[in-house]
Specification:
The protein has helices at about 1-25, 25-30, 95-100, 120-135, 150-165, 165-180, 200-210, 235-240, 260-270, 290-295, 315-325, 330-335, and strands at about 35, 50-55, 55-60, 65-70, 75-85, 85-90, 110, 135-140, 190-195, 220-230, 245-255, 285-290, 345. The protein is an alpha/beta fold. The longest helix has 24 residues, at about 1-25. InterPro entries: DUF900_hydrolase.
C-alpha cells in the first residue's frame, strides 16, 4: 500500500514537471536568447548578468543553440546579460574572461542543478538565485533532461549525465582554486560557495569517489559547500563526504517529507541522502540541517519561485542568504536563524 501511494505521488510530481517543460522549450522562450558573434564584446550595462559553464553541444545557427546532449570533450564558457527582457549570450574562451564581464564584484555561488533543466530553465534558476541573494552565479550547466524522452528514461538519462559530468566539474573547481591562488581580481576577496541541488549532488559524489581530487584537496578554498536535497544514496555517504578537504564548511540539508526524493527512493530502492539520514552514520565534517518542519513536501526549498505557492519563511531567507554569501554558520547559529532547535541536527 505504501509503495502504491508513493507511485501515485511520483506520477503526480512528474506530470507537474512535464507541464512546465514546454514553457521553457517553446519558440517564444528561446527567442528571448541570442547567441552573439564570437568577435562581439558585451556592453554590460545591465545589472542582470550570469556566467555559465556548460558541457552541452552548441549549435550556433540554431534557435535552440544549446543542445540537450552531453559533450564530455570540452567545457564552454558563457557570459549572459539581460537587456529589455532578452538575454544576450556571449561565448568566452575562459572562465576568467567570462567573470571579468560581470559589472559588480560580489560573493560567488557555483550552482549545480538537478534533473529536468534545459538551458533556458537553468538561466531562470540562476537569475533567481542571483537576484534573491545578491550574488554572482556560476551555473554548471549539464544536460539533465531530454524533451523527447519519457519520465523513466529521463530519470536514467539525468543520473548518468550527472555522473559523466564529474570529471569536467573537477576541472572547473581546479580553475577556481588556481584563480584564488593567483589572486585574480574577479575572485580575490570574494566568498565562494558551491551549491548542489538534488541530482547535482551525483556530480559531487562521483567526483570525490572516482576522480583524483588531490590537486584541489590540499587546502580549503571554498567557504561553504552545500549538499541540498541530495538525490544520492544516504548509505555510507560519510565515506565520501569526509574526503572533502577543499571546503571550510560542509552542510547537508534534508527533509523526510520531500516528495521528489520519495519518488527517487521508490525508483532506486535506496534511501536518499536528502530524505533521511541515520544519526549514527554521519560525516564528522558536516552540519546536518532538517527542513521537515519548514519545507513540508517541497523539494526546492532554497529559493522563492514565481510558479510555486510555497514561500520561504524570513528565517529560511536569512539562513540561505548567509550561506550563499559565504558566511560560516555554526550549529548554534543555525538553530537561532531557523527559530527551532528541532530543525538543526549536527555532529561536528
Amino acid at each position: 500500500m505504501k509503495r502504491y501511494l508513493l507511485a501515485i505521488l511520483l506520477i503526480a510530481n512528474v506530470a507537474a514537471a512535464r507541464a512546465q517543460a514546454p514553457l521553457y522549450n517553446s519558440n517564444e522562450s528561446w527567442a528571448r536568447f541570442s547567441l552573439q558573434p564570437e568577435d562581439l564584446e558585451p556592453v554590460t550595462y545591465s545589472d542582470t548578468c550570469l556566467v555559465f559553464v556548460s558541457n552541452r553541444y552548441i549549435h550556433p545557427q540554431s534557435l535552440r543553440f544549446v543542445d540537450e546532449f552531453l559533450d564530455t570533450t570540452s567545457l564552454k564558457y558563457f557570459f549572459l546579460e539581460k537587456i529589455d527582457g532578452k538575454w544576450n549570450v556571449y561565448k568566452e574562451n575562459t572562465l576568467r574572461e567570462a567573470m571579468e564581464h560581470l559589472p559588480q564584484k560580489k560573493d560567488i555561488v557555483v550552482y549545480a542543478e538537478g534533473m529536468g533543466k534545459i538551458f533556458t530553465a537553468n538561466v531562470e534558476r540562476a537569475q533567481l538565485m542571483s537576484s534573491q541573494y545578491n550574488v554572482n552565479v556560476i551555473m554548471f550547466d549539464y544536460a539533465s533532461t531530454n524533451t523527447t524522452y519519457k519520465p523513466s528514461k529521463n530519470f536514467r538519462f539525468a543520473r548518468n549525465n550527472a555522473a559523466l559530468s564529474a570529471g569536467q566539474y573537477l576541472l572547473l573547481l581546479q580553475e577556481l582554486k588556481d584563480a584564488k591562488q593567483r589572486q585574480e581580481a574577479w575572485i580575490s576577496g570574494a566568498k565562494l560557495t558551491t551549491f548542489y541541488h538534488s541530482m547535482g549532488n551525483i556530480i559531487l559524489e562521483q567526483m570525490v569517489r572516482h576522480h583524483n581530487i588531490n590537486g584541489i584537496n590540499e587546502t580549503p578554498f571554498i567557504d561553504n559547500l552545500v549538499i541540498n536535497a541530495a538525490c544520492v544514496s544516504s548509505k555510507r555517504h560519510a565515506e565520501w563526504v569526509e574526503r572533502i578537504g577543499f571546503a571550510k564548511q560542509v552542510y547537508v540539508h534534508f527533509n523526510r517529507r520531500d516528495l521528489q526524493l520519495k519518488g527517487a527512493h521508490l525508483l532506486t530502492l535506496r534511501k536518499q541522502l536528502g530524505e533521511k539520514i541515520n544519526k549514527k552514520r554521519r560525516a564528522e565534517n558536516a552540519v546536518y540541517i532538517n527542513f521537515r518542519g519548514m519545507a513540508g513536501w517541497q523539494h526546492s526549498y532554497f529559493m522563492n519561485f514565481p510558479y510555486n505557492e510555497f514561500k520561504l519563511t524570513p528565517a529560511m531567507v536569512a539562513y540561505f542568504s548567509r550561506l550563499f554569501n559565504g558566511q560560516g554558520i555554526s550549529s548554534n547559529e543555525a538553530t537561532t536563524l531557523l527559530a527551532t532547535q528541532k530543525t538543526v541536527d549536527t555532529r561536528m
